[in-house]
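Service request form, structural biology core

Requester: graduate student, group of Dr. S.
Request type: structure prediction, single chain
Budget code: on file
Notes: please return the result as structure tokens.

Sequence provided:
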Amino acid sequence: MPVSDALAFLRAWISNPLRVAAVAPSGSAVASLMTQDITPGIGPILELGPGTGPFTQALLERGVPEQNITLVEYDATFARLLARRFPLARVLHMDAAELTATGLYAGATVGAVISGLGILAMPTDKASAILRGAFACMVPGGAFYQITYGPRCPVPQAILDRLGLKAERTGWTMRNLPPASVYRIMRHRSILPSAL
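Core staff response, request fulfilled:
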């Protein structure tokens, strides 16, 4: 990880610790966990809160075409860095809670969502809006991958139940600062996409 990325991340965390989920960018071990289920043919990928792009880089290393990746980043400094670092990706400087309102995708086209957002620290209405927007643009059977530094799924069970979703931990690593887990969140088979 470049030192400049670590410094940019630390500055962003100091200025708004509730918006930036960690004190340092994610390392390669957790990036590998986040992207382990992703294949080049999965379709477009939506990444929320990419920060300096470690998960984006891991997606490229797995063979996902850069032009198939959309990066949604709230922090202006990170958004500019991402646009320079990944010129073929679509970089959007916006709040991920506004996914539904923007009509980012016409219909369910996204194969997977990768989230580096600090969902655990968000109000429940904001977390619900992010998940609702992500699943509205995702194909049936698509999955939402969420990093967390806590001991359990960062999305409260009440939100999962309300949206007809289920979560399972897919991995954990000590080789990250701080140690991290990854959760895969999917629709219950009995819930139709239109119900979200």
